[in-house]
């Protein structure tokens, strides 16, 4: 589990299906995203159950507010195929968007994975019309991909962005890893926010 100032990031559970279905059914949820397509095809439950089965570090995590155990979104880091490279996927219930929660939780998850031998590059895509998601990724330091990774569920017209994670270079401060700074030139470096 990872706690942020306002949220808890925990492994996804099959019980999160109701929140996921409610979010993807909301008219404000982009209809061309993979989760919305899986929902329309009746594949969402099987996908969530598969993501909940893991050995070791979970690939899909659910977000809750610290004050409530109810799922308000999810973040996933899925192996992309190349060593150290992961796809970032995320959703947040439309009712809680626009409050900085996605940025807070994605930063916390990337902080955790920016360790030697861990995640080195993160790839994300957004629907062409999803300006809020594209702006979020850019604020986090993602830059347009210099090469397009293999795409399995992402439509080819979706902008693809990447972020290189660089592990902390110095000693741990006060027994914990330093926070990630705002990256420069597409690199996500530990430091002060």
Automatic annotation (TrEMBL):
Coiled-coil blocks: none
Compositional bias (Basic residues): 173-193
Disordered: region residues: 172-193
Domain of life of the organism encoding this protein: Bacteria
Gene3D superfamilies recorded: 3.40.630.30
PROSITE patterns hit by this protein: GNAT (PS51186)
Residues covered by the N-acetyltransferase domain: 7-166
PANTHER family: GNAT FAMILY, PUTATIVE (AFU_ORTHOLOGUE AFUA_3G00765)-RELATED-RELATED, N-ACETYLTRANSFERASE DOMAIN-CONTAINING PROTEIN
Protein name as annotated: GNAT family N-acetyltransferase
Organism field: Uliginosibacterium paludis
